[in-house]
Every structure is written in C-alpha cells, then in structure tokens.
Amino acid sequence: MSSFPSNHDDAVLGALEVSLGYSFRDRDLLRQALTHSSRKNDLARSNERLEFLGDAVLGTVISERLYRAFPDFNEGDLTRIKSAVVSRVTLGRCARALDLGRYLIVAKGVARPVQSEPASATEEPSRSLPPSLLSNAFEAIIGAIYLDGGLEPVRQFVERHLGPEIERARTSHARDPKSLLQDYAQRLMGLTPAYELVSAQGPDHLKSFEVVTVIGDKRYGRGRGRTKKSAEQEAAAKTLAMLQSENPTSGPKAEA
C-alpha cells in the first residue's frame, strides 16, 4: 500500500471528516481523493479515477434532486440549473468553503504559498491552488464517499454542501424573464416564444438592439438594449406582464 505524507494522519483526516459531515470506514479512500495526479509517480495513485466516478455520481444525485424538487420545471429549466450547480465555479466555491486546499497532496510548484510563515509551529503555510484542482478534488471526495458508504451518504453530502447552491441557481433562474415566459407559454399555450430582431442601430461600440417577442403567429412585447440578450429579456418581461394581466392567476411574475 502506498504511504501518504505524515500530515495526513488520522487526526488530520478526522478534522476534515467533521467538515465533510461524513466519517470514512476506509480512510485510504479519503487520502486517495486528496492526492493530485502530480504526485502519482511517488504515491502510485491519484484522485483521477475517483474524480471520474464522482462526476457521474454527482450528476445522478443532482438530477434526481432537481427532478423531485421542481415538478413544474421542464427539461431545459432543469438542465440549466444542473449546469450551474455542477460547474467548476460552484464546486470550487464549495471546496474552498471546506478548506480542501489545506488537505490536498500536490507536487511542489503546483501550489503557490500565500504567506511566508505558518501561523504556528504545527500549521502549514496557506496555499493558493488552481480552481480546477479544487473542483476536481471535490468530485473525487464524492466518488470516495460513494465507494465507502453508497448512494445515500452522497445524497446527504450533496444536500449539506450543495443545497444552498441549488437554491441559488433556482432563484437566479426564477428571476430570468425569458425562462419564466418560456415556462408560461409552454405550459398554458403549448408554444415556445421566439425573439425577432426589429432593428440594430448605432456604431459597434454603442449599438442598440430592438426585438419583439413572437409566440405562435402573434407579436407581443418589444424590448431595447445594448445587447440582443438584454433586449430579449426586456421583451420577455413585457410579454409576460401582458399575458399575466389577461390571466392573473396563471403563473409567477417576472422580477425587476
């Protein structure tokens, strides 16, 4: 069995387990999840395989969670929220919240020191690690939990550490007038809104766009903006307000 650095003894890993909210029966799985590929030559194994597994397990657990939590959302809605939750940015943020960078086993040169001296004789200097490395380690830990305890502990881990991210993504989605209008139109009209460019005026650095929302064969609200996206969002918000004024109990209102 490969040896690991002494700073990854049971006491250190026990502290990490408290943060994770999960106690490993086989702590070598946790050690492997913390080992970057830059060290696989001298430690014989890295977290790459666990990362591969964790990515798949995380996708399954998040998909199930979203499917059960948001029964009124269509496939596109669920896909957008899932993409936001499992993105490298989100997973990296969760890894930093767990202070995973302090525990990762990496080769010299991969991590950059943040401070010249540790805060105490027993504490290691802080390190700055690439965001992708942190997000990969987060997925590797999910793979390790799955192998150690099965799917239910992974569900609990995801709920504990990614639950707020799911709500963040849902809230962001709910404030998107285009998404709200699409859900409204598909649910009540059986149609998907489209956006037709009316005009594009001005020089490139001061371009102004105007679009109109089209649902079926009917044109609704118009929007203007410095980008097509912002013009479409304004047009969607106006269209949603028009339709909801006609059917006031039919769905949520777009937020300003």
Strand order of the largest sheet: 3-4-5
**CATH topology annotation of the largest domain:** Ribonuclease iii, N-terminal Endonuclease Domain, Chain A
**What is the beta-strand fraction?**
5-15%
Name of the CATH first level of the largest domain: Mainly Alpha
Mean pLDDT: 83
Write structural notes for this entry.
This protein is mainly alpha-helical and 256 residues long. The chain has 10 helices and 5 strands, in the order ααααααββαααβββα. α5 (75-85) crosses α8 and α6 packs across α7 (131-149). Residues 1-7 and 113-126 have low confidence and may be disordered.
Short description:
Helices cover 54% and strands 11% of the residues.
Q: Which descriptors apply to this entry?
A:
256 residues; mainly alpha; Ribonuclease iii, N-terminal Endonuclease Domain, Chain A; Double Stranded RNA Binding Domain; 2 domains; 11% strand; elongated; disordered N terminus
Topology record:
Blueprint: H1 10-20, H2 27-33, H3 40-43, H4 48-69, H5 75-85, H6 88-97, E1 112-113, E2 127-128, H7 131-149, H8 151-174, H9 177-188, E3 194-201, E4 208-215, E5 218-225, H10 228-246
Antiparallel strand pairs: 1-2, 3-4, 4-5
